[in-house]
Write a structure and sequence with these properties.
By secondary structure, the chain is α/β, with parallel strands linked by helices. The protein has ten helices and 13 strands. The longest helix is centred in the middle third of the chain and has 20 residues.
C-alpha cells in the first residue's frame, strides 16, 4: 500500500518467468495484480493464482483497462518489426499518464553489443551490436520517446542470463541437454530470478525515471565452467568439451556468443540498496541443488 493507504495496482504485460517471481512479493504487500494473456486457459491459470487476467485481442487497450493500475512491468520481447506492447498500450497510457508511479521495461544486456570481454556499465556506448540487440535498443528508444512525450516514469532493466528453479544447468544436465562449449576468452554474466524480483521491487520503492540498470551478479564466467560446477554438485560426469567452431549452434545461440563482456552492477547496489541473494553462479546453483529445484 502507498503512504495514503490506497491499494497499488500492477499490470504485468506478459506474465513469464520473471513476473511469476515478482508477483508474490507484490501480493504480500497488498498490490492488486493484473496480467495480460492471449488464451482462456492462461486466464484461468492467472485467476487461480489470484491475478486478474486481461485478455488481449490484438486491439489497443482503452484507458478503462488501466483503471486502478499505477505500476506496469513490460516483459514482452520485440518481434522482427517492433515492440508488441507499445501499440496496444500507448493510447491507454496517454489517457491516464498522471496516475502512473512506475513503469519497468525488461530489456537485455545485448544492447551493449560486443566488448571483447571488457567491463561495461549502463553508460557504456554500444558497439558491434547484433540484430537481436538492435531490436532491444529500438524498443528501449521507442518506450523512451513515449515516456518523454507523456512524462511517464519509465525504467529499463538490462538482464543478463536468467536462471532459477527449473531453468538452470542442473536441469539441463538432468534432461541430458547440457553442453560444455568452449570459446577462448568468452564469458557470460548471469542473474538469479530471485534477485531480479528483489531488484524490481527495490526500484518501485525508489523510482528514478529514465534510469537503466544492469541486472547481473558479481561474476562473469565462462559458460563451460558453470556446467562443470553443476555436474560436480550432482555427482555426475560433465559432458565433453566442444570447441565453439564445432558446436553447430542455432542462430540464436550464435548471437549470444557474438557478444563478450563483463557487466558492472554497481548501480543496483548504490542506488537501490540491493544486496544480492546469489552474488555468483556457485551460490545460486548450490541453493537450487539443495532445494531440488531442477
Amino acid at each position: 500500500m502507498s503512504d495514503s493507504g490506497e491499494i497499488k495496482g500492477m499490470l504485468f504485460f506478459g506474465f513469464g518467468f520473471c513476473a511469476a517471481h515478482v508477483a508474490p512479493l507484490l501480493a504480500a504487500e497488498g498490490f492488486a495484480l493484473t496480467a495480460t494473456c492471449r488464451t482462456a486457459e492462461k486466464a484461468r491459470q492467472l485467476q487461480a493464482d489470484g491475478i486478474t487476467p486481461l485478455l488481449l485481442d490484438g486491439q489497443p487497450l482503452s484507458g478503462d483497462a488501466l483503471a486502478g493500475i499505477d505500476h506496469i512491468l513490460l516483459s514482452a520481447a520485440p518481434d522482427e518489426t517492433s515492440d508488441p506492447a507499445l501499440p496496444l498500450l500507448k493510447e491507454a497510457l496517454a489517457s491516464c499518464a498522471a496516475q502512473m508511479r512506475w513503469l519497468g521495461y525488461l530489456s537485455t544486456t545485448g544492447v551493449y553489443g560486443d566488448h571483447q570481454g571488457a567491463w561495461v556499465d549502463e553508460e557504456t556506448p554500444a558497439q558491434k551490436i547484433g540484430a537481436r540487440g538492435q531490436r532491444r535498443v529500438d524498443a528501449e528508444n521507442a518506450w523512451g520517446a513515449l515516456a518523454d512525450a507523456l512524462n511517464l516514469p519509465m525504467h529499463y532493466f538490462r538482464l543478463a542470463g536468467i536462471y532459477g528453479p527449473g531453468r538452470n544447468q542442473l536441469a539441463s544436465l538432468k534432461r541430458g541437454t547440457a553442453r560444455r562449449i568452449e570459446k577462448p576468452g568468452q564469458v557470460f554474466s548471469r542473474i538469479h530470478v530471485v534477485d531480479i524480483a528483489q531488484i524490481l521491487r527495490a526500484s518501485m520503492a525508489r523510482p528514478h525515471a529514465g534510469r537503466a540498470y544492469n541486472l547481473c551478479d558479481d561474476e562473469a564466467a565462462p559458460p563451460q565452467d558453470v556446467v562443470t560446477y553443476a555436474a560436480q554438485l550432482m555427482g555426475v560426469t560433465p559432458p565433453p568439451v566442444i570447441k565453439f567452431e564445432a558446436a553447430d549452434l542455432s542462430p540464436m545461440a550464435q548471437s549470444f556468443y557474438a557478444d563478450n563482456k563483463r557487466l558492472k552492477n554497481d548501480r543496483i547496489k548504490q542506488e537501490l540498496g540491493v544486496q544480492l541473494a546469489y552474488p555468483n553462479y556457485r551460490d545460486g546453483l548450490k541453493a537450487l541443488y539443495e532445494a531440488e529445484a531442477f
